[in-house]
Amino acid sequence: MLIFIDESGDPGFKLTRGSTSHFVVAMVIFDKNEDAEQTSEVIKKGLTDLKIKPEFKFSKSRDGIRDEFFNRIKSCKFRVRALVVDKKKIYSPNLRENDEKFYNYFVKQLINFEEIKLNNATIKIDGSGDREFKKELHRYLRSQIKPSLTFKVKFVDSQKDALIQLADMVAGAIYRSYPNESREVNKIWRKAIADKIDNVWDFK
């Protein structure tokens, strides 16, 4: 099993000064390696056909590019699980005042939510953070997830990994459906992957 994790939104709590109202961490799951390989090829071809450099990124894409991306991957075989955090419901000073602890905690929550099926999985996470952050996240996950589970955690460069780009686009599609629920246009990309979503968990 291969799992790719990325997020949308930010961990900040300056909600009246630019921080996002919600934070989404999404998990794209491939039960078979060949499905992952085929999906990666579809996305790489999309990069070439659409002249996208250096990567697909939801927050930086025009609506037309988003439409085309989700149309291209609709026949690909993967599953999605995601956790959505409404920051207004977070009261812990520990989470509100430390971005890394906030991020680590909710990645762990998402993985634990799926832990029964994670044995022998390879988990790949966007490695855009600095080295110390990645080491701390790795230590944290190892200490917080059941020791009986066997899994590998790898940090990868999203510009070089098409499936991390997929996780970014999926997280963005789910995130966009929340802060502006009254605007139907912001729900279309989540609807495009509706048949692939196992669960979207609203954290409470």
Describe the overall structure.
The chain is an alpha/beta fold and 204 residues long. Helices cover 39% and strands 21% of the residues. It has seven helices and six strands. The chain has helices at residues 33-49, 63-72, 93-96, 99-113, 131-144, 162-176, 188-192; strands spanning 2-8, 22-30, 79-86, 121-126, 151-156, 197-202. A six-stranded mixed beta sheet has the order 5-4-1-2-3-6. Helix 5 links the parallel strand 4 (121-126) and strand 5 (151-156). The longest helix has 17 residues, at 33-49. It is globular and about 45 Å long. It starts with a strand and ends with a strand.
Poorly predicted regions are: none
Structural Rg: 16 Å
Instruction: Give the integer mean of the pLDDT values.
Output: 88
Number of strands: 6
Question: Structural class given helices, strands, pairing?
Answer: alpha/beta
- Gross morphology is globular
Largest sheet: 6 strands, mixed
Strand content: 15-25%
Instruction: Give the CA-CA distance, first to last residue.
Output: 29 Å
